[in-house]
Amino acid sequence: MFIEFVRRLANRTNDIRIKPKLIVSFILVVFVPVLIVGVFLTLAFRQNVLDQATQQVGSNVDRVKSQIANIVRMPLEVSDNLLSDARLMNVVNTQYASTYSVVEAYREYRDIRDSVKLYNEIHNIRFYYTNPTMLDNWEFLRITPEKTREPWFHQAMTEDGIRWQYVEDETKGNQKYLSLVRKVNFPLYRTSGVLVITIDPEVLGSMMRQEAFDTMIIEDNGYIVAAKDGALVGKNINDATFNSPIAGKSEGTYEFRYDGKPSRVVIEKLIPTSSRNGLRVVSVFAVDSIVGGANRISLLGLAIMLVSLAVAWGLIYLTSTLISKRMLLLHKDLNKVAMGDLNVISSVSGNDEIGMLSRQFNNMVVSIRGLMDEVADSESQKAQLLLRQREIKLKMMASQINPHFLFNALESIRMKAHMNGQKEISVVVRMLGKMIRQNLEVGNRRIAIRDEIEVVRCYLEIQKFRYGGDRLSFLLDVDESCASVELPPLVIQPLVENAVVHGLDHVEQGGFVSVRVYRNEEGVGIEIKDNGSGIDEERMGSILRSFDDMEEEEQYRIGLRNVHQRLIMIYGESFGLRIESVLGEGTFITFNIPTGGLRHA
What's the rounded Cα separation, in Å, for the pair 200 and 71? Predict the structure, then answer.
């Protein structure tokens, strides 16, 4: 199937002129592959830059996570200290008799104020209590019904552990901060409160402003608690009005339009120690800002490639035009010669193939003119040749008179012998007559194998009668499927005659000749075998050398060389005679006839 397709494609290509063929070849072999490779390399280069930028952003996110972990470490430690602080437990659980005692207790308890002053990461600390005898100040706040309805506070009261929330600080004008929220239980008093430690937003902002890419920190509810772009702080990515593509995204790397630009986003989660929830660190970079340089380099490379292809295209077009023009000139000269003008001399010059073809064309025209002159000279000799041929034909007709006379005479002898009861002589004479008639009818026509075998049988019967006794016996083995296959006349009989005359000449008794016709891969195989005296090596070499002597004679030569040369001229070199002989044991001759009777290469 593929070979047939290639053959049809080649045939179709041969119908296209050289100029469009060269142009199409350039497009398919050079232009398209170079363009594909250029585009592929450009895209690969761009993708490599993007991947490197993504790796850098990932490293930045890891660094931000590490810095955040350091920032929240101190609030976590302060939270753990206050959780086990006995003085805090006494302050919030003592039943105070007067305002003075409350104020005095607040004055003596300095741990909260000292922690705020000592650690830059902590912006404020407040504790929500249920003791009705206490008073509100900047550090201790009563739990009100309104406060309990706030989701973050309700969640803190119902769940143990640390949570990170973006909540309002009523002591700071209700401004929201990232805060550590933790329930503090006092089992001894069967009471509890809520500790809130807010992270200093300036510490977070200072850290974010150092980042090379747009980076933000988002808490569980979607609030942006810190960002390189300060205008984003406090916005909720889940808010429909914000329309952020980051909403609902978990950890990973994403590509989408952010702020109207194609962007790549890296999201990773940070869960601080002992916390029930965590924070998401999001870093965004616009693809154009990263691949802008790569795009410029790619465009420059693409421009250089296109210019190179354009120059190559121009050269190919110019070359194809020159070749086509020279071929058309040579074609015109060929047409003139085809119309009979032998005075044409091609003017196409050059040392390339077309120039060589032009010179060969001129040589051919000169040779044709010389041949025409020779033909003109030979025309004057035709009359003499025709006269000579007529004389030869008359001689050939005269040479057939004696064989015809001999055939008729033999027929009369056969009838006379038959009438006198000499049946054996009659049969032999009839066979001899058959052979003579066959020789008279020999021409260029072919005969069936069965007819050739009949001639062989007649010849062997005559020789058997001639020798008498048991000096000669024979076997004719013919496959019926081969009997109708045609071959040139007098091919098998001369080989059998050669076996009898030369092979069995010195055999006094037990001479044997066999002829076998059978099917094989070549078509039909024919074997002639005798048990005669055989051929020595010197004689065999002489016979084989004579096979290459192609000198023709005035009449058909009946012999090994004649049969061999006729076979190879009709069927091809591989269909000649093959001879094997052992001195004193006999000779074995084989050859093949193609079934179709056609000449083989």
Answer: 9
User: DSSP readout, 41-92?
Assistant: HHHHHHHHHHHHHHHHHHHHHHHHHHHHHHHHHHHHHHHHHHHT-HHHHHHH
Taking a C-beta distance cutoff of 8 angstroms, is the pair 319, 22 a contact?
Answer: yes
Q: What is the mean pLDDT of each run of 10 residues along the chain (601 residues)?
A: 72 70 76 80 73 76 89 92 92 92 93 92 94 91 92 91 93 92 92 94 91 87 90 82 67 78 84 90 78 71 82 81 78 79 76 77 80 72 51 44 54 61 66 69 76 89 80 91 89 90 80 93 93 87 78 48 86 89 91 73 48
Q: Which structure tokens are listed for 489? A: 């006349």
| Alpha-carbon torsion (497, 501, 502, 507), positive or negative | positive
Among 403, 414, 497, CA closest to 442? 403
Rounded Cα distance, 181 and 72, in Å: 12
For residue 207, which of 184, 230, 186, 183 has the smallest C-alpha distance?
A: 230
Beta-bridge mates of residue 255: 264
CB-based contact 228:215 (threshold 8 Å):
yes
Residues, the chain, total? 601
Specify whether the CB–CB gap between 268 and 275 falls below 8 A.
no
For the chain, helix, strand, coil in percent to 5 are 55, 20, 25
**Cα 349 to Cα 357: distance, rounded to the nearest angstrom:** 10
* Cα angle 295-296-301, degrees, rounded to a multiple of 5: 95
Dihedral of alpha carbons 555, 558, 559, 562, sign: positive
Number of helical (H) and strand (E) elements in the chain, helices listed first:
18, 17
Q: Which domains are present in the chain?
A: 54-289 (3.30.450.20), 467-593 (3.30.565.10)
The CA angle 453-455-460, to the nearest 5 degrees, is: 90
d(CA 456, CA 450): 10
Name the token pair of 103.
């104020």
Run of H or E residues at 542: helix 537-546
- The b/e string for 94-133 (b: 16+ C-beta within 10 A; e otherwise) is eebeeeeebeebbeebebbeebbeebebbbbbbbbbebee
| Look-up of token digits 């984003």 | 232
524 contacts 592 by C-beta, under 8 angstroms: yes
Q: How many other CB atoms are there within 10 angstroms of residue 530's CB atom?
A: 27
Q: How far is CA 88 from the centre of its chain?
A: 80
Q: Which two structure tokens, joined as six digits, stand for 226?
A: 């810190």
Q: Are the C-beta atoms of residues 576 and 583 closer than 8 Å to each other? A: no
Residue 360 DSSP code: H
CA distance 576 to 470: 33
Going edge to edge, which strands form the sheet with 523-530? 472-478, 511-520, 523-530, 586-593, 578-582
Strand partners, 269: 280
Q: By three-state DSSP, how is residue 485 classified? A: coil
Spatial distance between the Cα atoms of 121 and 272, rounded to a whole number of angstroms: 15
Are 323 and 317 within 8 A, CB to CB?
Answer: no
pLDDT for residue 129: 94
